[in-house]
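During the reporting period the student researcher (J.K.) took over the structure-prediction task from the postdoctoral fellow and processed the backlog of single-chain submissions. One of the processed entries is reproduced below for the supervisory committee.
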Amino acid sequence: MKKIFFLAMFLLSCSQTLFSQFKEDPILNLENEDKKRLNWGYFLGFNQYGFKFDYNEYDPSQNKTDVLTAKNLGFNVGLIGELRINDYFDIRLEPGLYYTQRDLGFPGFSDERDYLREVKSTYIHVPLLLKASTKRLGNFKPYVVGGVSTSLNLSSNQDNAEDNSTGTFRMKKNTYYYEVGFGIDFYLYYFKFSPSIRGVFALSDELVQDNNPNSPWTSNIDGMYSRAVFINFTFE
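J.K. obtained the following structure tokens:
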């Protein structure tokens, strides 16, 4: 969370720096940029994924439910396709490649080989989003964005016969999400630059249960859902 906080502060600092470069009545850059029916671009950014766990039962005395998640900073890269509806609404498709790692700690074990599971994921993430913008204010325009998405986990071992008893933590290949966020379009001399921040919330359970129904790792988990924060910088 500290990394995400500092990234958010960096994003705000960049925005303030860009704001300071625009006068009250500036010369408009890229005046016809938003009149295109189709628009293309790419994005680079950072992510931080975590998990939300639902449990079958809660027993504080045995600390059954506390699966600990250590989050790491990941990297995003992808393309943008945008369809203009009118001056205020656009439909966006943003297929991208997302690299991330989460470290899970399962209570009740003294040996690190049993306690720790490193969950490395490489996602092909495809969101379909509705972008709602304000009226253009000089050379910038705030917007909010929301929609649904799906991902294919290229690192999934869903079909692996081994499980946590041999050190293999299994996740499903496909996941569905909803997303909400906000950002600002800055119209520079040669291109449009847009920093944004977005929350991503899984709708489908990603956990593959262990083969043993009484597994000390997964038997008490009813569902496991990704939660993520994306900070993207787009260039159009």
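The committee noted the following: The mean pLDDT is 86.
J.K. will present the remaining backlog at the next meeting.
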